[in-house]
């Protein structure tokens, strides 16, 4: 077993960074409201358009314009804090307040590891390996989208096998893609069956969540809106994350990109709140810049960090929980990958984010999932959990250590005194995840580089992994449902 901190729902004790003065917040808000009122958002879903027309919004074809008073009224219903309870209630998570939650890499089509040395399309076997890693590491609090796309499974029934794998190989909060009626309805029913819940129990409080992306600039597509509305009606967790890359799908200025993202995301939250007042919603940021020579997205940059902090300030203005991401543009788990991801993760901490997607395993702007990168990121997350530990700033007499300083005085050292011995390898002093080594220790281990060491650790984790228990009747009900829906064709609809 590797050394890691126990499972917990961490609390971020730091005061969030507010980069803008009050007049900056007001200016961005006014711009977002003008976009909603004057330009409008294209909703490519007739049902969503009809709902918003009924709500009093101005509709011209697929373009919907919302008044700021309507948006404010809808946001007043959105809870600032909510919980999700998976099939194992000990893995319940709280979204909002001072909590910060980390999730696994989600949705890359490709896989890379050190031994392969190149990327390849994802498979179900690789997908299941990442689920085991996600279950094993206590610093991973929820299971996002597919950690790598299992393209060897047929698209019509892929969601049935993938969600069943999630529910059997992990007992943490699950996600389902909002990609039309069948995938969402099947996902909700599978989560209900795995938890052994009656329909009323499932609808009473969140048991799962989804994340949708607007199609920037200023559009929401048909299948994501369909899934969004279905999950809203049943009170499940909803996160909307506009993918606004400054200079490409949004203005090149960061405050302009943030204002556009707010208009896109708030329009979806207003729709959910009109359908079900009090529906649990969070606003997600994915605003960054691009390389203007190639158009490639950049992550972990100063622009990305500031956009995340600004969005956090705006989410506090609206009283909404916030989602951000750990991301990088590097193609392999090297130094660039780690400094960009570390910048992204610290931006999440500084911004007051509550949900952090892609916190472990992401490469090449989301095109690659890597197990070595997963392990390396989890070690960074372990250090963050240690950073959040209130024991580091306790000021009781034992921690202030006057007597210890008086004992050592001007000569000697603190290695052998009782004050040190009482705290060494105690709850006060723990490595983050796995044993730390300095350069000499690294040489003694055979001189492996960081990615090589991560490869060894990820293989050890897969050996140590144990499947979480699930009642036999829940397992049987889940299997029966999957086979029934497979026989019916799954989700054959093309959008």
TrEMBL record:
Top-level division of the source organism's lineage: Bacteria
EC code: 2.1.1.-
Keyword Methyltransferase: yes
One protein family per Pfam: MTTB
Keyword Ribonucleoprotein belongs to the record: no
InterPro entries on file: MttB-like_sf (IPR038601), MTTB_MeTrfase (IPR010426)
Keyword terms: Methyltransferase, Transferase
Gene3D superfamilies linked to this entry: Trimethylamine methyltransferase-like (3.20.20.480)
One annotated GO biological process: methanogenesis
GO molecular function, one term: methyltransferase activity
Enzyme class: transferase
Family: Belongs to the trimethylamine methyltransferase family.
Protein name, entry field: Methyltransferase
């Amino acid at each position: 077993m590797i050394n890691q901190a126990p499972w917990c729902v961490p609390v971020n004790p730091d005061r969030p960074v507010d980069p803008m003065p009050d007049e900056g917040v007001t200016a961005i808000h006014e711009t977002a409201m003008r976009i909603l009122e004057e330009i409008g958002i294209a909703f490519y879903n007739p049902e969503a358009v009809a709902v918003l027309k009924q709500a009093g919004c101005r509709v011209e074809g697929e373009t919907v314009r919302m008044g700021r008073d309507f948006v404010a009224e809808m946001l007043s219903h959105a809870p600032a804090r909510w919980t999700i309870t998976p099939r194992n209630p000990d893995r319940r998570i709280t979204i909002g307040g001072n909590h910060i939650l980390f999730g696994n890499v989600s949705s890359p089509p490709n896989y890379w590891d050190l031994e392969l040395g190149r990327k390849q399309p994802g498979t179900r076997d690789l997908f299941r390996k990442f689920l085991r890693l996600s279950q094993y590491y206590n610093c991973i609090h929820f299971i996002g989208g597919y950690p790598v796309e299992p393209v060897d499974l047929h698209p019509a029934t892929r969601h049935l096998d993938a969600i069943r794998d999630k529910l059997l190989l992990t007992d943490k909060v699950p996600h389902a893609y909002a990609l039309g009626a069948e995938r969402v309805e099947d996902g909700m029913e599978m989560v209900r069956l795995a938890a052994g819940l009656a329909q009323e129990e499932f609808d009473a409080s969140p048991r799962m969540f989804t994340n949708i992306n607007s199609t920037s600039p200023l559009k929401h597509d048909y299948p994501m809106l369909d899934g969004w509305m279905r999950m809203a009606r049943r009170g499940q967790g909803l996160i909307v994350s506009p993918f606004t890359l400054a200079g490409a799908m949004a203005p090149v200025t960061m405050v302009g990109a943030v204002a556009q993202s707010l208009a896109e995301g708030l329009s979806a939250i207003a729709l959910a709140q009109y359908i079900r007042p009090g529906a649990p919603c969070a606003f997600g940021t994915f605003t960054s810049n691009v390389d203007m020579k190639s158009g490639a997205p950049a992550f972990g940059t100063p622009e990305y960090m500031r956009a995340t902090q600004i969005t956090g300030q705006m989410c506090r203005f609206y009283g909404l929980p916030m989602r951000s991401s750990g991301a990088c543009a590097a193609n392999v788990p090297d130094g660039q990958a780690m400094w960009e991801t570390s910048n992204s993760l610290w931006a999440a901490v500084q911004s007051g984010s509550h949900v952090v997607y892609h916190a472990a395993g992401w490469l090449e702007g989301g095109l690659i999932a890597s197990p070595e990168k997963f392990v390396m990121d989890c070690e960074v997350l372990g250090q963050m959990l240690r950073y959040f530990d209130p024991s580091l700033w306790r000021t009781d007499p034992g921690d202030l250590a006057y007597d210890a300083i008086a004992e050592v005085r001007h000569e000697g050292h603190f290695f052998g005194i009782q004050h040190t011995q009482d705290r060494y390898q105690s709850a006060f002093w723990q490595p983050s995840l796995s044993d730390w080594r300095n350069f000499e220790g690294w040489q003694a281990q055979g001189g492996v580089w960081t990615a090589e060491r991560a490869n060894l650790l990820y293989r050890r984790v897969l050996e140590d992994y144990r499947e979480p228990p699930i009642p036999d009747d829940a397992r049987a009900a889940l299997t029966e449902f999957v086979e029934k829906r497979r026989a019916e064709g799954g989700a054959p609809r093309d959008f």
